[in-house]
Design goal:
Length: 194
């Protein structure tokens, strides 16, 4: 049975400049679906990028009624935990519904959104063939950039890794290492539902 688990969590205030701030959210994906290049990943996205994704998905799947995003309200206060959590829940529900639709799952923009940190402009360029890298290359590159904890690298340098323990994954860059842990995401997807 195929599954896709998506969590939107860990909202953080980011400073754009001295006058502007925004909140971004961690998107954690864990799946066994053949639709996904990586089975586990996490990225950070802001509300504006969700708006872009919805608009692009809708333009490519005209006959499908996409779920709504939480509304953009002029009274949204990023220092109000209730406002932030309400938006987080709405973003998670949006992604959960989208990931149940086979047609939407075939859109490369969705996969780049969920499994890379490319900007919307770079995602568009990649999907339209204007980059030297493919969608799969972009996803693999992002995963390999975020592959290991720094402490694992230290242990490798010191030669503490057992020859039997993980030799194939440390030599080839493939294997059982968990991509979600490597980019700072929490390992247990069910742990955070506040």
């Amino acid at each position: 049975q195929e599954f896709v688990t998506v969590l939107v969590r860990d909202p953080r205030i980011q400073k754009e400049d001295s006058w502007h701030s925004y909140i971004d959210y961690e998107i954690f994906i864990h799946t066994n679906s053949i639709c996904f290049t990586r089975k586990t990943s996490c990225v950070r996205r802001r509300y504006r990028e969700f708006l872009w994704l919805r608009q692009r998905l809708q333009s490519n799947a005209v006959l499908i009624q996409l779920p709504e995003l939480p509304s953009r309200t002029p009274f949204f206060n990023m220092n109000n935990p209730n406002h932030v959590d309400h938006r987080r829940q709405g973003l998670q529900e949006f992604l959960e519904k989208i990931l149940q639709d086979a047609l939407l799952l075939s859109d490369s923009r969705l996969h780049l959104f969920l499994q890379t940190q490319l900007s919307p402009e770079d995602m568009e360029a990649c999907v339209s063939g204007q980059t030297k890298y493919s969608v799969a290359d972009a996803i693999h590159s992002f995963a390999s950039l975020n592959r290991r904890f720094p402490i694992e690298d230290e242990e490798r340098k010191k030669g503490k890794n057992d020859a039997d323990s993980d030799s194939e994954s440390s030599s080839s860059g493939l294997g059982p290492s968990d991509d979600s842990i490597s980019c700072g995401c929490k390992a247990s997807p069910a742990s955070e539902e506040s």
